[in-house]
Amino acid sequence: MTISVVTLAGGRPDHLRNLVIGLTRQTLLPVELIVAVMQDTVYDLPAAPFPVRQLMIAGADLPLAMARNAAARDATGDQLVFLDMDCIPAPSLIADYARRLQELDGLLMGEVLYLPGGANTGDWRSEDFDAVAVRHSDRRGPPADGIELCNDYRCFWSLNFAMTRATFAAVGGFHEGYRGYGGEDTDFGKVLDTAGVPIAWIKGGLAHHQYHPHHMPPVHHLDSVVRNAELFEARWGYRTMGHWLYAFRLMGLIDDTEGLPIRILRRPDAGDFALTGQQSHQPYANTASVIRVLEARPASSERVAA
By the 8 A CB rule, do 164 and 80 touch? Predict the structure, then answer.
């Protein structure tokens, strides 16, 4: 079996370079890396002992679903490993997926640990990350060994996963109606669940997520979250990203009354960005902690749109 690695890229060239370096240090090398480029120019990438192809993806609204599908179609490997560009693969990631995909033909999710700012600078080594990397509090850990099936499709996070190319093609890939940030991966999990394709965690397949400023809930993607939540509802009969919508409602950003279209009441301001922003000492931003702050506010201090 041969493995192609697929990633999406826009900005953050240092992160993509680190991903490539991590792939060159694999105990089992991929046959290629396909980079779906969502910016105007290609990247200057380090030399690698496998082909690296950069596909230019049109569209200014972060076409994540379309980009993943295009890269997967261009891949030649029997197995596909999807890594976000801000992930550094541990040396055994490719070998772990290769072994586990022979045991279960489904969607397999490897481990992810989060790095604080500065951990990936200089002449880094994957083993040095062990002392500083942490697990996401909203994400359950891997099984003690082997493979563990997930019985709720919402467990799927798209930053580090693998499938056979044949199974990915058979389910039709990601729905390209999703544009911008949010919802396309949950929709894909629902598609797999409906098709009877198993979703599972594995022990191994470790990637380290590199720090970059972010917001949770993603107030900087308010419009696309709202749009994609309504697309999901049109396709499946109910909305996804409910925790983000709930936080937006508490912040006075939206009216998401059930049975009616979601209305954006106001634009995020400096206070919203300060509340939701990730700091450099934090390995990740966390929606649950923001919701706790919002729920603890006295009702009289809640913001009401004009």
Answer: yes
Model confidence over 247-277: pLDDT tens digits? 999 999 999 999 999 999 999 999 999 999 8
pLDDT(197) > 80: yes
pLDDT (0 to 100) of residue 213? 83
Q: Where are the alpha helices (DSSP H) in 8-92?
A: 13-24, 64-74
For the record, the structure tokens of 135 come out as: 């697990």
Residue 301 has pLDDT above 80, yes or no: no
Contact 81, 96 (CB under 8 A): no
Name the DSSP letter for residue 129: G
Report the 10 Å Cβ neighbour count for 296.
Answer: 7
pLDDT at 136: 86
Token code pair at residue 62: 């972060």
Residue whose C-alpha is closest to residue 199's, from 186, 184, 183, 208: 186
DSSP assignment of 251-299 equals TTSEE--TTS--EE-S---HHHHHHHBPPTT-SS--HHHHHHHHHHS-G
Query: If DSSP codes are grouped into helix, strand and coil, which group holds residue 202?
Result: strand
Contact predicate 65/37, CB 8 Å = no
Closest by CA to 89, choosing from 56, 120, 66, is: 120
